Amino acid sequence: MEAGRKLCFDVGDWQTFSAAERGARRVEKRSRPAEILGFELADEIADSDLHGFLDRRELAAHDGRLKLLFLLWCQSFGHAARILLHPVVVTLACEPLRPIALATIPAHTRAMLIDHHCHLNFPQFAEDMAGVVGRAHAAGVGLMVTISTRIRQLDELIAIADVHETVFCSVGTHPHNADSELEIPTTEIVRLARSHPKIVAIGEAGLDYFYKKSSPEGQAEGFRRHIQAARETGLPLEIHTREADDDTRRILEEETAKGAFPAVLHCFTGGAALAQTAVDLGLYVSFTGVVTFKKSEELRRIATEVVPLDRILVETDAPYLAPEPYRGKTNEPAYVAYTAAALAAARGITREDFAAATTTNFFRLFTKVPQSAAAKTEKA
Ligand SMILES: [Zn+2]
Ligand SMILES: [Zn+2]
């Protein structure tokens, strides 16, 4: 800290100052106390070319002091991997100038993270695919699986996976589109799944009673076909289930009785009973940025108490469901680090251990993905 540079943030603009200059400059008092602050960076962060911004999170009086206000996100072009990921210790100060709180952004860990569920073919990413993949690597995300929502658009996914070594894909029909792809038989899903080395999963398929964009019958039929495809190919099924806990449990139990199949309940937002059923049936349960939301206490409890460490996965479901502190913005695979950090904290283990566990789980489930494909994301 002592060798660090001081950054002073001044209402939407910032400048860097050397340690020697620290204290020479007081931040001018502004009308809102949140605008009065300074912070220091660990020395590894100090670098010319720093670009950063403060993301305002919370401002609350606490014992007469100001509580945690901001998270800091730093980026240095040219050293993105190191700068972006280093734990940044932020010392917030207010009037009178004194440290009042510490905050960190998710630290880079030597253990790799994997985003097993994102949608890189969606238009949000069309202009900046290389940037998205590069930022994921920089954040320690070594592999991504871009998930199919329409079998008829499989070519889009293969095109992305062909270009980016660390991107794999799935084949399947999202429950929203189930009715419109019911003429595609299971044999065709199986054939496609085996047609390309980068197709490593089935789905996403399942039940969505929240939007009900397809009929419940069509969704159930599609769900069972995808289960059969997973059973035949040994590729994991990415299960989408929303507001459909009871029917999902029933179908999973009926289908498992016919023969086991590998699967993960992706973007889990259901109840404890569904999570318990999945665990009992040998399936995996995966969490998105939703677990970072303040009100998701029950979900964090499920992720901590119901799902064992050897069955848990993390994902983004990007471009949707960005974790805090990006809630409401476009999500991207790099941000899976925030979800992992929140779950590690909830479980009381290190990010390193949590990342290692989820990555081990990924390779146990996604058997077609060669471990050698992962980006080298370790710190230099
Ligand atoms: Zn989904
Ligand atoms: Zn999805």
Describe the structure in brief.
The protein is of the alpha/beta class and 380 residues long. The chain contains 10 helices and 17 strands.
SSE blueprint and pairings:
Layout: E1 6-10, E2 13-17, E3 38-40, E4 50-56, E5 61-62, E6 65-66, E7 70-76, H1 80-85, E8 90-93, E9 99-103, E10 113-118, H2 129-138, E11 141-146, H3 154-163, E12 167-171, H4 186-193, E13 199-208, H5 216-233, E14 237-242, H6 245-258, E15 263-266, H7 272-280, E16 284-287, H8 297-306, E17 312-314, H9 336-347, H10 351-365
Parallel strand pairs: 10-11, 11-12, 12-13, 13-14, 14-15, 15-16, 16-17
Antiparallel strand pairs: 1-2, 1-3, 4-7, 5-6, 8-9
Helix pairs in contact: 4-5, 6-7, 9-10
State the shape: globular
Structural class comes to alpha/beta
User: What is the string of helix and strand elements?
Assistant: EEEEEEEHEEEHEHEHEHEHEHEHEHH
Task: Compute the number of strand runs.
Answer: 17
The fraction of residues assigned to DSSP E strands is 15-25%
Global Rg: 22 Å
Number of helices: 10
Unreliable parts: 1-107
Mean pLDDT: 77
- Biggest sheet strand order reads 10-11-12-13-14-15-16-17
CATH topology label of the largest domain = TIM Barrel
Q: How many domains, in number, for the residues?
A: 2
Task: Describe the main β-sheet briefly.
Answer: 8 strands, parallel
